[in-house]
Amino acid sequence: MTSQQQQQQPASPPRPSHRRVPFPICEDDSLAPFNPAQLPSDHFLAQRPVTPPRPDSVIDPVWVDGARPDTSSLAAADYDVSVHTGFLPPEEPVQSLRGAGCGWDALEDRLEEVEREAAVPGGAVGRLSERWMRSVRELPHASVEPLTTLPLLRRAHVVLAHLTHFYMHGTFPSQTVVPASLAVPLVEVSDRLGLPPILTYADTVLWVWRLTDQARGLRADNVEITTTFTQTPSERAFFLLSLFCELHGPAILRLMSATLDEVFFADRTALTRIARYLESIARLVDELTALMAGATRGGFGPDQRERIVPEVFYWEIRPWFNGGKWTYEGVGPNGEGKEMEWGGPSAGQSSLVHALDLFLGVDHMPRAHGHPHGHGKGARVAADKVEKAAFPGTFHDEHDKDTAAAVRAAAAADSSSSAAASAAAKASASLHKAPSDATFMQRMSHYMPGHHRAFLSHLESLHSPNPAAPHAAPVLPSLRKLARRHPHELGPAYDAAVGAMRRFRDAHMRLATVFIVQQARREPARGSVHWAEWEARRVAKERAEEERRRLGEGAAEREREKVVGTGGTDLVSFLKRCRDRTVEALLGDDSDAQAQAQA
Ligand code: HEM
Q1: What domain count does the chain have?
Q2: Which domain of life is it from (predicted)?
Q3: Ligand 1 in contact with 575 (CB < 6 A)?
Q4: Residue 527: exposed, middle, or buried by beta-carbon count in 10 A (0-12, 13-18, 19+)?
Q5: CB–CB of 520/567 below 8 Å?
Q6: C-alpha 367 – ligand 1 centre gap (Å)
């Protein structure tokens, strides 16, 4: 543009210098390249966490310097979120700790051995050799001393968490004691990462990939999953499905960041831009939905070549993921064992989905049935009851004590007996441990790397005044509030984004139905360790049917619910509830939107 043309342009209103979308949003974006110094200090992608994650666990000063997240990513580096890779690490993960010394070579060796041993037709749950199990117990204690960077710590968690799950489910019924050779370094490494000492979504998706061709960078057709339990294409595809979703993270986060910049100003230009960004977010979320729909139909990813076989997933892969109430040997203050209960990995631990919910104002807080906005104590108690029914092992209650006792008793008995089977079923229903007043989504955040959890809590705090420091930082109106205030400018775009999240959850429910609910009803292979458990359930169900005939329909219905339990009914109603919470966020013809706008 010539200087003469510039003079003829209508003068645009002066704008503060930090009104700048921090990253190029799309190809034709005309904004200047991002300079991190231009971000306002309270920008959600700029600020250091107010409280660093798990500060009490950072005991090694070397770690403080060496393991800080990579700050070259120009995005919320202190939160370990990258502008190029989102919640995935900015560099290809460390592939091996060989050469680190201090016991890590031996741990890598055990992992390589067991991956080979477990790669047998029909799966190896409950059938690992005593030779391998013993070799794990006899491992020298690995020291975390050489793990001075975040990528090294991540690899250590991947190795130890996989070895732990191989070990615990290498016998049937599963083990209940994590040997000190795994437990001690796992707890130490977990503390430093702000993770629980169990296999998480980070270990199975975020941190276990490598590039096929280094020159082509991170993209869906150039990435491979490196560590699996079964070495099957189905397991690789299962993790790739989530990884492909995460690849949308950078674009989504950039749009969220740009939106929040505009929310700060909320003038006419800002509202137009926000509407555009929300529509783009809706399109990106629809791409996640398309991935899920592809996986449900049979093929997804580049050339639709990835495929997860539902029965292989359910019977051969998924049992390796189970968490439980385990004794971690040698981790107590005086070297004694410590009992802890944790659930296994779930894409419910994906920070990306949580970030979208927070950003759009999808509220998962428990509330009383029929009271969509009820948040009182009574409402929470009622909703907790529903969650307890769906995930009985999630809560600390009498049931947990019974489960541990039942498992111990069953382990002592014949492993093919129905007692062992039903105890194992009970144990595998033990999913997630966390405070009983937290929602499922809150509990899932305990399974995210500490930096990501801090990122989400910072995102949340942008809209909520800090009662301890009411004047500390300006509080942004939530996007939902803003959309209600400006229904004409923002309503349709906001609803488009929330509607996309609803379609995402609809597609996810279909996926869970095909891969879990339907499979739970099918008979596993006769030779597999699951057959006895399945048979015990079948017999119990038959008994319930007899009861139905004896007691009449209503009572029998209740019996049937008890039997199906977490195998189907409860899971579906839980996922439906997450979907319903999303629908509640829609503004639609929200009658009180105008009233809010006046407020
Ligand atoms: C075959 C693939 C999948 C299956 C069988 C599956 C199954 C499940 C199940 C059983 C739950 C209930 C809670 C739990 O057990 O952890 C769940 C929750 C959840 N999953 Fe998946 N899932 C799959 C893929 C994905 C993917 C690719 C994503 C997205 C990254 C995802 C996101 C979520 C979220 C966010 C929740 C929490 C509930 C909600 O927000 O609706 N899942 N999933």
Answers
A1: 1
A2: Eukaryota
A3: yes
A4: exposed
A5: yes
A6: 22
Q: What share of the chain is helix, strand, coil (3-state, %, to 5)?
A: 55, 5, 40
Q: How confident is the model at residue 553 (pLDDT cuts 50, 70, 90)?
A: low
Q: Which domain holds residue 274?
A: 104-364+439-522+568-598
Query: Any idea which of 161-175, 276-290, 402-416, 513-527 has the lowest mean pLDDT?
Result: 402-416
331 in contact with ligand 1, CB cutoff 6 A: no
Residue 588, pLDDT score: 87
Ligand 1 atom nearest to 354, measured from its CA: 35
**Element at 325 (helix H, strand E):** strand 324-328
Q: Which atom of ligand 1 is nearest to the CA of 357?
A: 40
Indicate whether residue 245 lines ligand 1 (CB < 6 A): yes
Note whether residue 458 is domain-resident: yes
Count CA within 13 A, CB hemisphere, residue 478: 19
Inter-residue contact 506 to 554 (CB < 8 Å): no
Q: Do the domain assignments include residue 69?
A: no
Which tokens in the block code for residue 131? 């030779």
Which CATH number covers residue 160?
A: 1.20.58.480
Give the whole-angstrom CA distance, residue 493 versus residue 500. Answer: 11
Q: Whose CA is nearest to atom 25 of ligand 1?
A: 347
Give the model's confidence band at 152: pLDDT under 50 very low, under 70 low, under 90 confident, else very high.
very high
Q: Poorest-confidence range of 242-256, 479-493, 504-518, 564-578? A: 564-578
pTM of the predicted structure, to 2 decimals: 0.79
Dist. CA 526–CA 535, nearest whole Å: 10
In angstroms, how far is CA 541 from the centroid of its own chain? 33
What are the E-state strand segments in 186-233?
209-211, 223-225
- Token pair 């039997």 in the structure block, residue: 563
Q: How far apart are alpha carbons 572 and 576 in whole angstroms? A: 6
Most informative mutation of 508, 581, 582 for ligand 1 (most atoms within 8 A of CB): 508
Please indicate whether residue 516, judged by its CB atom, sits closer than 6 Å to ligand 1. yes
308 lines ligand 1 (CB under 6 A): yes
> Ligand 1 centre and the CA of 587: distance in Å?
26
Question: Does 348 sit in the ligand 1 pocket, CB within 6 Å?
Answer: yes
Within a domain: 180: yes
Is residue 210 in a domain? yes
CB-CB neighbours of 424 under 10 Å: 27
Does the annotation place 84 within a ligand binding site?
A: no
Distance (Å, whole) CA 549 – CA 46: 65
How long is the chain? Answer: 599
